[in-house]
Amino acid sequence: MITIYGDPISGNCLKVKWTCERLAIPFAWIDVNVVNRETRTDAFLAMNPAGQVPIIVLDDGRTLAQSNAIILHLAEGSALIPADPYDRAKMFEWLFWEQYSHEPSIAVVRFQVKYLGRPRAEVDAALIAKAEAALGLMDRALEGRRFLVADQLTLADVALVAYTRFAHDGGFVLADYPAVDAWVRRVETELPIKEPR
Amino acid sequence: MITIYGDPISGNCLKVKWTCERLAIPFAWIDVNVVNRETRTDAFLAMNPAGQVPIIVLDDGRTLAQSNAIILHLAEGSALIPADPYDRAKMFEWLFWEQYSHEPSIAVVRFQVKYLGRPRAEVDAALIAKAEAALGLMDRALEGRRFLVADQLTLADVALVAYTRFAHDGGFVLADYPAVDAWVRRVETELPIKEPR
């Protein structure tokens, strides 16, 4: 049985939980509180020198970090990874875009506003513009589509929904992005996601 | 034959070129000047709505973006991707870490100093600290190792060497990270990389 070290406020950590649940992979969950800096203790840094959740510990004690690397490992050979090489490549394109352009804006604004208590008016305007650009790009990509890649639920949807569904915590209005809004509800139903928004 | 749209000053673009050269994949290269904002023209945005290089265009006209997604697609089935599932997962861990923690600090400091002409003393100190932390983490990971994963050259090395070998452009001193310094020279020889540092 694998062990997930994660914080339930972190979309990156929930991705791993949802992938296990979808694929009926048994797991134990150990809470690591990010706000209290529990990822910075010597014990945690010995497991992940990058000081980030989530990590998983496998049966044999080996560890793995980076949410998207973890879900790729867990979902290997499943329908969450498209069989067609180009579709799979597009899934990877979304996974890397998520970590480069989406999470560092949308999740960071949410963290500052909701968990650090920073008034939204004091959040870096460039960061908010970057988040809005990310939501706009997704909205155009999802127009007329059920899922991000290949008309099937893939890890691209799992990864992107994680913080998109919490965008309102950072003051973003999903109703302004109707294709994204409908897609979030679709992915929540399909996975399914039990955690409330 | 695939076409690479890239800027030769971009490590992300060179990753794609090196992967093609290593695997003897024929390609055409079309220069796209980032500093002149040629990634923001309507014609380019039609190919990649994210407005970033590199992209590749396949034989059939379909496009693919995100450097690490591209090299994964090109290297599928080759020795640049480890066969062992855990080794492959560790390669993915490095690829996502590169895009989240390494490129946004090391490449961005380099770009500001070398290409925007910003004096290094005026670069955000937190960004420099993040870059130094990334180099330190790599140095500890590489101690006693030839390559990042599984004692073989993998896409993790291709992706991480891209901006690490240009870190001096941002004022970082690789000699302060001796395991990284030796690894850069090893990867440059092994790939091999022809572009001067």
Chain pair sharing the greatest interface: A-B, 32 and 32 residues
Q: Write down the domain tally of chain A.
A: 2
Low-confidence segments of chain A = none
Strand content of chain A: 5-15%
Straight-line distance between termini of chain A: 28 Å
Secondary-structure content class of chain A = alpha+beta
What does the largest sheet of chain A look like?
4 strands, mixed
- Which CATH C-level class of the largest domain in chain A is it? Mainly Alpha
Helix-strand sequence of chain A: EHEHEEHHHHH
Helix content of chain A: 40-55%
Number of strands of chain A: 4
Mean model confidence by pLDDT of chain A? 97
Silhouette of chain A: globular
Lateral arrangement of strands in the main beta sheet of chain A: 2-1-3-4
How does CATH name the architecture of the largest domain in chain A? Up-down Bundle
Quickly count the helices of chain A: 7
Oligomeric grouping of the chains:
homodimer
Cα-atom radius of gyration of chain A: 16 Å
Under CATH, the topology of the largest domain in chain A is which? Glutathione S-transferase Yfyf (Class Pi), Chain A, domain 2
